[in-house]
What we know:
The structure holds two protein chains of two kinds.
Chain A (H helix, E strand, L loop, with lengths): L1 H6 L15 H22 L6 H32 L2 H19 L11 H29 L2 H10 L6 H15 L3 H19 L6 E2 H19 L3 E7 L7 E2 L5 H12 L6 E10 L2 E9 L10 H16 L4 E7 L2 E9 L5
Chain B lengths: L3 E6 L3 H13 L6 E7 L2 H10 L4 E5 L7 H8 L7 E6 L3 H10 L3 E3 L4 H12 L8 H5 L6 E6 L2 E6 L5 E5 L2 E5 L4 E4 L3 H7 L4 E5 L2 E4 L3 E8 L3 E9 L5 E4 L1 H7 L5
Parallel strand pairs in B: 1-2, 1-3, 3-4, 4-5
Antiparallel strand pairs in B: 6-7, 8-9, 8-12, 9-10, 11-12, 13-14, 14-15
Helix pairs in contact in B: 2-3
Amino acid sequence: MHNKAQSIRQNDLPNALPDFRNLGVMSRILVLANALAVVFALARSGEFSEFAGKFTEIAGQLEPALLMVVVVLYTASPLLERLAYRHGLLAVMATAIAATAVLFPFQSGIGGNDGWHAFSYSIGFAALTTALLAWYFYLRNRAFSPAISEARLQALQARIRPHFLFNSLNAVLSLIRKDPKRAETALEDLAELFRTVMADNRELIALGDELALCRQYLNLEQLRLGERLKVEWRIEPGVEQALVPPMLLQPLVENAVYHGIEPGIAPGVIEVRIARRDDRLTLQLSNPYYEEHQHRQGNRMALANIRERLLLHFDVEASLDTRVAGSRYEIGIVMPYRKPT
Amino acid sequence: MTQLRVVIVDDELPARNRLRELLEDCRTEQAHVVAGEAANGVEGLQVAASTQADVVFADIHMPEMSGIEFARHLQVLERPPAVIFVTAHDQYAVKAFEVNAVDYLTKPVKAARLLAALKKAAAGTRFAPGVLESIDQGPRRHFSVAERGRVVLVPVSEVIYLRAELKYVTLRTRTREHLVEESLSQVEQEFGGMFVRIHRNCLVARRLVRGFERGNETEGDEGWSVILEGTEERLPVSRRQWVQVKSLAK
């Protein structure tokens, strides 16, 4: 179970509180609570012109309490994780009501003139908001439950192009008579590459292992492309131990060869840069860009695949961007820096 | 039995070496000699022409010029060689080959298949007209002209206009004229909006149109002529095409 929690951190169990230290979870709480405030303000406005005033009034009371709740949940997250789901829910509900109650004396009421009436309105709104959010996270957890997430991850297993397999086999065949030693090495590389591709690729692995895989792949490509393929590695020392989704880089390197090296007669350079910035890991990959080569299929599929796997592992904390800068095509990935526990 | 002259065109050196080995293996059953090899279509055209190749093995997936475009340009030679396509994994092309009964080999190549293809080529099978055009996945990058036994390639981007005159089509670039065997309507279709028809017998490069002026050789002051970058010539715009063409004026 521990490993599973590491691979898909947000949804350890179908019935569990969300990870209050996850940026995606936090932003969902903030956005949804404010959306409820909008609905509430609309419901309480007789005419649309009153809406702005009502919303300001409600928001004025909501935001401080909301911030307080978020800070408390963030701090108490390790404690909450240890509670049973039901007790955790009660604790969160109590936090929301307590925060509203504590802040109430410093604010004007939203219910009416009568102080007690206003107080019960505020508490009611806090309880209702918490309940709706809990319900939302419950449904979301169910939709992304480990079983389903894992099934999706499995379906998303990166695939190697058949084009590469057949060309590599052909290149190995060309070596067998003249250079049997090199043919052996190449077949070993090929076997290891496919062992990784066909393995169960759901759990995070060390970046160093992924880089080794990329090097093996590139050795095979070098065999058939020779001088045309040049690779520059700029890897910050120490990042090799960071945990990344398996097959994160290999498909990107394969794309770079297919779209950036194969269409050119002259040698081309693939550049891979990996660095750590505080708690973020940044990976950048660039290759020569051939505009007329873009109608070829495959690139977008590999990118969509990696994007979705990043989403399943890290939610909104990871991103993948692509751009064309002059004569080069660039891909940038930013993701949380995770160390093995 | 005369020896077949074979040329191998593939951008990957190991692939060319492998094909040489396999050809060597079946030399006793089909006499031939490997007359040359090339790493891309542009070189391949010169090698095929200078060696007077009988059979050319062409990889489909090559930089600069696809194997299919390469085969199209080979057809301008007086005695075009038989072409056997080779591909690692190109489902689209393989399907098109099957439909059109074009010979092809898949990588890794099997000796028995290679021998069968070679024997068929020795028997003298050639492409039916229009087959390669229907298989090609995109517009060509070059027009080709046979000149003194060589293939001269004219990049499509250098063409100013194509004009049909009696038997031939004249292709104009900044520096010179070529006579090509093309059909204007086929060119119009292949390159989409790149060439605009200004007359029943004339296509001009859209991006080189600089404007129009009054008067032309057939209609006098009533008609219009097009001004093109890269040439002093003024080509007449027919009354029928004027409606569509005048919007190009800037």
